[in-house]
Amino acid sequence: MYEYFQIDPKLQALSQEAERELAPQFERVEEIQRYNQQKMLAAFHQAGVSESHFAASTGYGYGDRGRDVLDQVYAAAFGAEDALVRYNFVSGTHTLTVALFGVLRPGDKILCVTGRPYDTIQGVIGLEGREEPGCLKEFGIGYEELDLLPNGAPDYQAMEERISPQYKMIYIQRSRGYSLRPSFSVDQIARMASIAKRKAPECIVFVDNCYGEFVEQEEPVQRPGVDLMAGSLIKNPGGGIAPTGGYIAGRHDLVEQCAYRLTTPGTGREIGCTLGHNRELFLGAFHAPHVAGEAVKTAVFAAHLFSKLGYGVTPGPEEDRHDIIQVIELQKREALIAFCKGVQKGAPVDSFVVPEPSPMPGYDCDVIMAAGAFTLGASIELSADAPLREPYAVWLQGALNYHSGQLGVLLAAQEMLDEGLLQL
């Protein structure tokens, strides 16, 4: 089928060579994929999932057994005491916001130990210039942050010196956002949590786990000291099937507080109809470990292919992975645009659309996005996006299966080749 997609024979040969050389890396990814898929099946068994749990509820949703059992499945799969999984979470940022407002109170202070958080959460916090109505700052909740080291690693020494009981929450963003710093492993997160609990035993250690679920064999809340984590179902944990939603998982008492924020104090998780979405959410959860592994394999392939083509990549093709995101430094504005055009051509939906850079609120430059997805905005499906600024890096993520993801990466390279921006 390479002829149908008009992939240059030299690019085909380079791709085949890359796949042969990647056999050890793929084997390592598949070992994690196999373990996590078995872990998910065990979670379904432990929760006793049955056909009856897929039934729809309406109105208040009293007694929706499927809703409650889905919480049990995610809690077991994540190794958490409890979980709150709802299609009512409209985005990852909304899920994080519910968690923050759920466990914080006026006068509390947050210390983010992983540098400046992702753009959309800045408005939730109320950072200077991003003081949106209803933000944490308006409610008297303070925020401070620690910079990372110049190489993007956590500054453990600064944490030792800065963390104290004055902070109610230690906030950790696992993934990189629109930055070139590395994502953080469960081991690194556990070390941050250990410092936090030693310096401020009563603090809440909260992890933004977006893009990281099922990439390693453990999740952050399985480690001592990590109290709470949250993420989006249209990223890794929804398996490309959940049409919307999010999860919060961790300590039972904290998850309960989040449920009171999502609905109302006193009713919490006891209400909330599911309107027939349960089947998709269960099926998405079941597929999630396999799909996350396919996305990681696609990222590894992209790293190896483009490093062969002479571009800087992070992570490197042989590095351990802690999220599904691959960064490629394309060096030129035109190359970045061409790359995104090629990724769009590799999509099953809207493959004929031509991505164009455009302004986006909160950014100081144009942003380009390539995504042809069954679920709008689902970054577990193959997508690429970037602000158009030096070093003209692109953030690639997702792929429901490796074979289509690998072809999408090849089409990105082919588009660059066709536009005279790549030499073989």
From TrEMBL:
Domain of life: Bacteria
Protein name: Methionine gamma-lyase family protein
Organism: Candidatus Acutalibacter pullistercoris
